[in-house]
Design brief:
179 residues; 78% helix; mainly alpha
């Protein structure tokens, strides 16, 4: 009788463990799906926030009719770019979106903002260098990133080569390598 009881206890224990593992598996899948949904919602919120801020800054460009307004406008613009980089570098902004934005910036570094009525405005690059030197010392990683981006803008004439180098630069600074 002891043998039968012992066999029953072993079978019951194994069954309980198996059911526990199966239950845990399904719970982990639920939690994982919940985390994934939360991450997608956060990504949408981040994109909406950055897009809204960018649109607001571009609308304000039309009001830049004095040197002081231009300085303020550029400060807001570069502050946004720095924030985008910081979110990207922490894995909180998808790299393909950030790369698209940064590639466009690389194309425009040598130009002046077209919507600004004040005519003696600096190029994007010149104002960005001034921003880095005057305001951005707390973020040496972003300083390095943007200086490398400026170098790409200066050296590449071909958009294809520029895009490839920007891609490599973004990949170099990407925190999460699974995107």
């Amino acid at each position: 009788m002891n043998g039968i009881l012992r066999d029953f206890i072993e079978i019951a224990t194994c069954t309980a463990i198996t059911l526990g593992v199966i239950f845990s598996y399904f719970q982990i899948r639920k939690i994982s799906k919940s985390i994934e949904t939360g991450q997608q919602a956060n990504t949408i919120n981040v994109l909406n926030s950055f897009t809204k801020e960018y649109d607001e800054i571009m609308i304000r460009a039309l009001e830049c009719d004095s040197p002081k307004k231009v300085v303020t406008w550029y400060f807001r613009f570069w502050n946004l770019m720095t924030n985008e980089f910081l979110f990207f570098s922490k894995g909180l902004l998808d790299s393909y979106i950030f790369e698209f934005w940064i590639f466009k910036l690389c194309l425009y570094y040598k130009e002046k903002p077209s919507g600004v009525p004040y005519k003696r405005i600096n190029t994007y690059k010149k104002s960005h260098l001034r921003y880095i030197e005057n305001h951005n010392g707390n973020y040496p990683k972003s300083d390095g990133f943007f200086r490398e981006l400026m170098k790409i803008s200066d050296e590449e004439k071909s958009k294809t080569k520029m895009r490839n180098r920007v891609h490599k630069l973004v990949k170099k600074y990407r925190k999460i390598n699974c995107q």
